Amino acid sequence: MDRGEVLIERLLDWESSFVAALPEQERRQGRAAVRLAAGVAPWGVAFAVLFGALGQVGLAISLMLAAAGVGSSPWLLRTTGSVRWVAHWINVFFSQSLLYPAWLLGGLFATCIPWLAVCIVFATFISGRRAGVVWAVISVALMVLGFGLQVGGYVPEPVVTPTAHLFLAMTAHQGLFVLAVALSWAVSSSAERHAQELSAALQRADDASKAKSAFLASMSHELRTPMNAVIGYAELLMEEAEASDAEDLGRIRDAGQHLLHLVNDVLDLSKVEAGRMAFEQVPVELVDLAEEVLVAARPLIEGGGNGSRVEGQGPVWALGDRMRLKQVLLNLVSNAAKFTASGEIRLRVLSTSEGAVVEVIDTGEGMSPEEAEHIFEPFIQARGDVERTHGGTGLGLALVREFAQRMNGSVSVHSARGEGTTVRLQLLAP
Description:
Layout: H1 3-19, H2 27-53, H3 57-71, H4 73-80, H5 83-104, H6 116-127, H7 129-151, H8 162-240, H9 243-274, E1 282-285, H10 286-303, E2 307-311, E3 317-320, H11 322-338, E4 344-351, E5 355-362, H12 369-374, H13 386-390, H14 396-406, E6 410-415, E7 421-428
Parallel strand pairs: 2-4
Antiparallel strand pairs: 1-3, 4-5, 5-7, 6-7
């Protein structure tokens, strides 16, 4: 590390010592105030000395006072812990260093008067809009007062020498550049630091998500083995049990199968999120697949008194993983059957210019637009009473979206309360 890097490191440590006690959300503004003080205070001292050498004692005192007030602001920040009060403190000293030279140089004609706008910008940047409005009112009031004094003849004739007058104008312009550099440095540094902090937070969240997915995948796998044993032994006992006992064993088997289905949903979602589930991209004929899905889901569909049919003329081909596509359609049909009674569930297969579409259409109770907006998020269910009535983890539709995206497709939903639901699965052409 060279001397320049060491110096910058020490300056950053010095700066951090003043803002360390501030809340995280205020440190950016605190750093800007410290850097402004570090840039403006030496500038004020230097020009105070120069004006003193030119015989302009009043200007020198005004600039030295401003340099002392602004320069002390980092220590005031450390003592009070209030960015808002420090912003007001800096502006008070800064504005007096503008008003006194303006009084000597002809009031509103002075080159330093427009600098009052910097007070508004600085207050807004450091303390927020309310502070900006306060200093806007103060600045306007000062200019109105200056106008009244100047029109009334109370502003004295300029009492500085032409050389000092020219030097003061140059000071104002150079100071503006110094202030611009200080604020630019503060903004760019804060933005860079914020980007680094955001990147680190995103990385931590990503690592935590992967660890969660790996843990769920491992736990779900460990749960499947004993659940399969429970289901298997229940079925074996049912073969030899009497009718009364067989009914109880059937309940055990059904409960085990339901739990195994929930565990499988968790396992599948965890594998997808962890990137451990492989997907093929091969041509799949969708009309035949839709027929298979309705046959497999018929007991659930007819259990609610519903009819079902496939709409579409084959063959309609799309790219995808046949096994995962079948799982997606089974999830959609099963979900439709849960919310449809004495109605109809249709699978409409369409060929499009971009590929193929499968729509799962039901005549069930439907959803509100707010529910439909979040229906594909994990652990989200259509209504609060759905969990009590139908059960489930809220992962089925999340898996649908994840599987569709992994096959370079998309899924969307259109629904209205009392008017049924249509889920549209869009796939690419082979």
